[in-house]
Amino acid sequence: MVVDDEESIRDLLVMGLSHHEFTVEAYASAEEALAEVGRLAPHVAIVDIMLPGEDGFQLTRRLRQDPDLYILVLTARDGTQDLVQGLEGGADAYVVKPFELDELVARLRAGLRRVQKDVQTQLRFENILMDDSAHRVEVSGDPINLTAKEYELLRYLMRNPGQVVSKSQILTHVWGYEYPGDDNLVEVHISSLRDKIGDDEKQVVQTVRGFGYRLGG
Q1: Which of 4, 22, 44, 82 is 20 to 30 A distant from 105 in Cα terms?
Q2: pLDDT tens per residue, the chain (217 residues)?
Q3: What distance in Å separates the CA atoms of residue 151 and residue 196, rounded to the nearest whole number?
Q4: DSSP labels for 87-103?
């Protein structure tokens, strides 16, 4: 969960973190974030201090009700008082703008390991099992061979079961946010993936016409 009133920062974090295989939702205010936190159940919250209405310090205290949530505070101010207030309010880490994306990602991953809420290594959907630690996929107990991009595509879908993802979202998550984009590339890989998992009736990887694809319904 990203909460920042600067659209450019939100866009940067959504694209950058998605490229590093985080699933990201972004909000412009504390009120918007609080309305969705129950549904989203995030592992990580990145909170800007200078928010309209309820500020980041207040939001951090509310989010801290979840002891397993890793909270990283972003601010353009680097004063000691802000640092202390943020950490005492429940933040786990503090990053000053402007920041390097790689450093922020490293902090998030280290924090996730500490709270033991890292991305699960085994994913299952119906008769498909993905063991991410072993880089192995089984269908009904039988291993199947996927190309690197087919594997990343299936992993993205399995991490978002039942959710419709667009072709542009797939390109961002699987090929990287700097990829120029080609809808046919997605269609070809979806078709190949269906063949390999035995999805002849297109009931597992479903096409949602005009929107994109989803895993199951």
Answers
A1: 82
A2: 999 999 999 999 999 998 888 889 999 999 999 988 877 778 899 999 889 999 888 999 888 877 778 899 987 765 556 666 656 667 888 888 888 898 899 888 887 776 654 445 788 899 999 987 788 999 999 999 999 889 989 998 998 888 888 888 888 778 764 455 566 889 999 999 999 999 988 899 999 998 899 998 6
A3: 11
A4: HHTT-SEEEESS--HHH
The structure tokens listed for 131 are 């063991």
**How many CB atoms neighbour CB 11 within 10 A?**
14
Write out the two tokens for 175: 């090929």
Question: 70, 98, 115 — which closes off a domain?
Answer: 115
SS (H, E, C) 155-213: HHHHCCCCCCECHHHHHHHHHCCCCCCCHHHHHHHHHHHHHHHCCCCCCCEEEECCCEE
- The number of distinct structural domains making up the chain is 2
* Domain range for 89: 2-115
CB burial of 139-160 (b: ≥16 within 10 Å; e: otherwise) equals beeeebebeebbbbbbbbbbbe
Helix (H) or strand (E) holding 45: strand 44-48
Decide if 8 is inside a domain: yes
**90 within some domain:** yes
The answer to whether residues 9 and 87 belong to one domain is: yes
